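Retro notes - structure team

What went well: the batch runner handled both jobs without manual restarts.
What didn't: labels got mixed up in the shared folder, which is why I'm recording both outputs here explicitly, each with its sequence directly above its tokens.

Job 1
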Amino acid sequence: MPKPPPGFEWDEAKAAANWRKHGVSFAAVDDFDFSTALELEGSDHETEEDRTTLLGKLGRETCVLVFTRRAGRLRVISLRRAAAKERRLYIEAKGY
């Protein structure tokens, strides 16, 4: 598996599982467009740590990125292509 770009980290087993399930490498987070991303409210998972869910562009794809902050780094939890409903939400919010 590729090494995390500067400022990011992840669990290698989780990264491999994400690749198998979603076909998206955690290493692609380096190309995620944080500047135009939308932060989504709520979470499907109960956890003790705060997680952030962003809907944004990864190249031409609209993707969902879930991460948490640990020791000044972003720890990637999940990165996947957005579902149709999520893509519509992004388009509507951005006024495209």
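Job 2
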Amino acid sequence: MPTTSIHGTPDYAELDALGLDPAEVIYFSSNINPYGPPPSVVEAVQDAISRSFLARYPDSRSQRLREKIGAYHGLPPNAVLVGNGTADLIWLLAHAYGNQRQAAILSPTFSEYADGVIMAGGHPNHLILPGWQRISGNNRASFEQRRIQQFAPGRTTLDHTRQALESAAPWLVFICNPNNPTGEYLSPGALRYLWEGASGALWIVDEAYAEFTEDPWSAAQWVMDRGWIVLRSMTKDFALGGLRLGYLLADPSIIERLQAVQPPWSVNGVAQLAGLAAMDEMTWREETTARLRKEVWNLQEGLRACGYAPLPTTVNYFLVPVGNAQSLRDRLMPSRLFVRDCASFGLPEHIRIAARPPHENARFLEAIARLSADNAPHLEQRHIQ
């Protein structure tokens, strides 16, 4: 079965067809830190690269990086597993635990959870996140869009979501917190309340965007006593997309099971080196993510001035209802500005925009203003109820 996942990262075949150089395009579609990687990470990689370094096999268990990550989270190294980005780890988890089992996926959210479960022979069950609702698909939508469940802002409450978890009695639960693409962030109390509705399940909490929030917290505090699995991405906050680097935190018994099925040398030596250097750059991360939160506010204000209604967010990206997301994406492409068409999330009337440095955000707002002046369809005034 083909996957439904589409990403905000460059589609090089599409760029080639359009005659565009990837370096000339501004990716508002890609929600990584635009101020990175940290200079010290680049320098560490440049200083280490040599013929012998490139010829040498990397540590297949990323032991030094596991030790450093574990110390940061207050966990032993054997509670850490490093992977080739969090998508790699999501698929590893699905294959280790999802075969012939039901997985609750709190939606709308990242499609890799469902795709990984399906490919592993499991059964994804999309339960609705608070603040959203499932809607009937548009009959005029493409077949690909119609086969993806569709969502809109709605009146689902925390109690409704917990009741759905109790009724579903899943084996696995996937939740993205903060959520991609909606930007909501559940508090420790809210997440614990949902867990009580399915406390027998294996909970997988994806915290790839936690460090973009003003007050980040981590469910890592529960991995040892409740058996939770926490996913973290270094690709996003440290801008290591070209290397791919992520990790998960879990009880050592879970780590041991995952290591048994993880391909050897799945994390290359350059990525491990960059990860070690990045772990020393927490101040840089705090400063740049604080800058991004200001840019989110400025970008949303600029969009409102053009007649759009961006939805609230806690992170560096946000949703904007536009009526026809693909159409607006296509109209921005000649300006070498890419936004995320959210059809693959089940949100074909929304785009996702990630904040970037001020001069790039200004260029984007100028392009949006031109489209509005040319009688481009205005966004529907939708808000989370």
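One thing worth noting from job 2: The CA atoms of residues 209 and 294 lie 16 Å apart.
We'll revisit the folder naming next retro.
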